[in-house]
Structure formats: structure tokens, C-alpha cells
Specification:
This is Palmitoyltransferase. The protein has 10 helices and 6 strands; from the N terminus they run ααααββββββαααααα. The chain is mainly alpha-helical and 302 residues long. The strands form 3 sheets. The chain has a two-stranded antiparallel sheet. Strands 3-4 form a two-stranded antiparallel ribbon. The protein has a two-stranded antiparallel ribbon with strand order 5-6. α5 packs antiparallel against α7.
């Protein structure tokens, strides 16, 4: 019996029906999260067991103060990390459309039909291939947390950047002070700080392995400090304008309000939001991330 040849149309239909909608694991996510926890744990032990005891062995008060700052940084950074990591509230659900559009089979104006999630997604939401979900007011995917930054966790991400900045600056101060006592930076020992050169000097027996590791660790702190500053400044810019990163790159601003209203949309009541610097607790937001009103001045450009 002759086997029937499958047509191109049938092949395309089979491919469409058998699509994989599951999020695809990527090494970038795993490496980013692993790098964060490596830095957190290594800086904790390095600061408490080596840097602080050595630098302030004759000053108990300053030593205790620095130890307290280390634990504050640990608690604040990890609290904001977990709140940023937990992005389930940002996921678009089928019930969202029923909240504003009942008994409709059509995609509402301003919404879009997502073929991957197989649901209608509200304005400003975008599909993330890494998360496998449509994200409310999606800004970007953060590899350090392995999650998307969107409507409900953007505020925690910004506070996370603040704590990343001061904690890495503090760690860098301790590292450079410790290294400078043994190898003054502005001297012939400067070559000991150059990437690659210090490793060669270790193999030649000119520098202890402990010093090499702390120098390399300081490179990582500089990277984290720079990343924290960049993301904090960028987030402040787009929040003040009422934009997401996607909208800023496209140079559109259809939903921007006044600067204060834009900050309220992200952080909640301004009279309480400063408390998030010390206690990253959630405050009710004035919007739900589903319904967005286009501002009159932006209608033409949009």
C-alpha cells in the first residue's frame, strides 16, 4: 500500500498545533541568580571574618557598627531580591479581560491577542519568552532575580538597586582599605591590582593568593556598583516620565501624567513610600496594571 504524502499545509498545521508554550530555561538566568548569591555569601564572610576584624581590631565601636551595617545590607538586599523575584502578581490572566469587558469574544481595543499565552493581554503588557508569560506593564527581564520587572515589583527592583549601590560601595571601601594597607595603590604595588597581572604575580610568588582573591572580588563589586547605579538612574528617568523601558526605546509616552502621579503609580502613596527604603512592605497602588488611560496630549503621537 502506497503511503500518502503529507502536504505542506498539513505540516504547518501540525507544527502550529504542537507548539511548546513552556518557558525555556536559559543559562543566563541560572548564572545571574548564582552570581547574586555568590556575591551575597562571599561578601558576608569576607567582611565579617577578614576585612572588619583586621581593619578595626583596635576600635570595638567602629567594628561593631560595621558588622551591623553588613547585616543591614544582607537583610535589605535579600528582602528586596525576594520581593522582586516573586513576580507572579505580574502574570496576565484570563480573568483580567472579564473585569472590564464582559461577554465579549473579541480582543478589546488597545489589547492584543498573545499566541503564546493564548489569551488577550492588556495595554503595556508584553510576553516574556524566558518566563513564558505575558507581564503586566513589562519593563525588562532581570537575570539577577530570574524574573520580569513589571507593574507589581518595579518598586522593589528600584529599592533593590538602592541597596545594591550603598552595600557594594561599603564593601568596596573595606576591600580597598584592606588592600591599600598591604599594597599601597599609589605606589609600585599598583600593578598588583591590574587584571591578569596579579594572577601571574601569584604564580611567581610575589603576591599571596588571599590578596589576589580580594582584588578579583573588588572587580565584581565595581561591576555590581556600576550596574546598580545604571539601573537606578534609568528607572528614575522612565518612572518620572511615566514610561516603561520598551516605551522609552520606542520614544512614545501615551500614558505619562505629572511627575508626582507617575511616581505614585509605581510606589503608591508618596507620604509612605520612603519607608520602603527601610522596610520593603507593599502599599496599595492607585492602578491595577490592566486599565490605562491615554493622555490627551499623547493621542496624536500614539
Amino acid at each position: 500500500m502506497e503511503r500518502r504524502q503529507v502536504t505542506l499545509k498539513e505540516k504547518l498545521k501540525a507544527h502550529y498545533d504542537n507548539r511548546n508554550f513552556q518557558p525555556q530555561e536559559t543559562s543566563a538566568n541560572k548564572v545571574g541568580v548564582a552570581f547574586y548569591w555568590f556575591m551575597t555569601i562571599s561578601l558576608l564572610f569576607e567582611s565579617l571574618l577578614i576585612l572588619i576584624p583586621t581593619l578595626f581590631k583596635d576600635n570595638t565601636t567602629v567594628k561593631l557598627l560595621c558588622q551591623v551595617l553588613v547585616f543591614v545590607a544582607l537583610v535589605e538586599c535579600n528582602a528586596c531580591w525576594f520581593l522582586t523575584y516573586k513576580d507572579v502578581s505580574n502574570y496576565v490572566r484570563k480573568t483580567f479581560i472579564e473585569k472590564y469587558f464582559t461577554r465579549t469574544q473579541e480582543t478589546p481595543p488597545g489589547w492584543r491577542s498573545c499566541p503564546s499565552c493564548q489569551l488577550d493581554a492588556p495595554p503595556r503588557s508584553h510576553h516574556c519568552k524566558l518566563c513564558g508569560k505575558c507581564i503586566l506593564k513589562r519593563d525588562h527581564h532581570c537575570f539577577f532575580t530570574g524574573s520580569c520587572i513589571g507593574f507589581y515589583n518595579q518598586r522593589y527592583f528600584i529599592i533593590f538597586c538602592v541597596h545594591m549601590i550603598w552595600s557594594n560601595a561599603f564593601a568596596l571601601y573595606l576591600q580597598l582599605t584592606y588592600l591599600n594597607e598591604a599594597m599601597p595603590i599609589f605606589s609600585n604595588y599598583f600593578v598588583n591590582y591590574l587584571p591578569g597581572i596579579n594572577v601571574l604575580l601569584y604564580f611567581w610568588g610575589n603576591i599571596p593568593i588571599g590578596m589576589v582573591l580580594i582584588v578579583i572580588h573588588s572587580y565584581f563589586c565595581i561591576f555590581c556598583l556600576g550596574a546598580g547605579i545604571f539601573f537606578f538612574v534609568w528607572q528614575m528617568m522612565i518612572v518620572s516620565c511615566g514610561q516603561t523601558s520598551f516605551e522609552a526605546w520606542k520614544n512614545v509616552n501615551p500614558y505619562g501624567k505629572s511627575v508626582l502621579d507617575n511616581f505614585r503609580s509605581v510606589f503608591g502613596p508618596l507620604k509612605f513610600c520612603w519607608l520602603m527604603l527601610f522596610f520593603p512592605v507593599p502599599f496599595d497602588l492607585s492602578e491595577d496594571g490592566i486599565k490605562w488611560e491615554i493622555q490627551p496630549k499623547s493621542v496624536k503621537g500614539h
